[in-house]
Amino acid sequence: MTSANLKSLLIKGIAEDLSYLELRVHLIDFKEQGGEQPQALAVLEEIHKTVSDETVGDRLLELMDLTEGLGIKALKVW
User: How many domains does the chain have?
Assistant: First the structure.
């Protein structure tokens, strides 16, 4: 999966009002298909900059934490 694919999936998931746990699945798929942490973080940051809804922004921040290895240990992506 490319960074562009990840971005597209995340944007679609946000439009469908998926939870951060549901969106996390796309990050795991990205990782399992050879994607790297810096790429995933760049995609999340790029999307976050364009979001005006605070709830969606918080969801993206949670995903960034999990991608960086922060937050709930069992949910970490990297």
Answer: 1
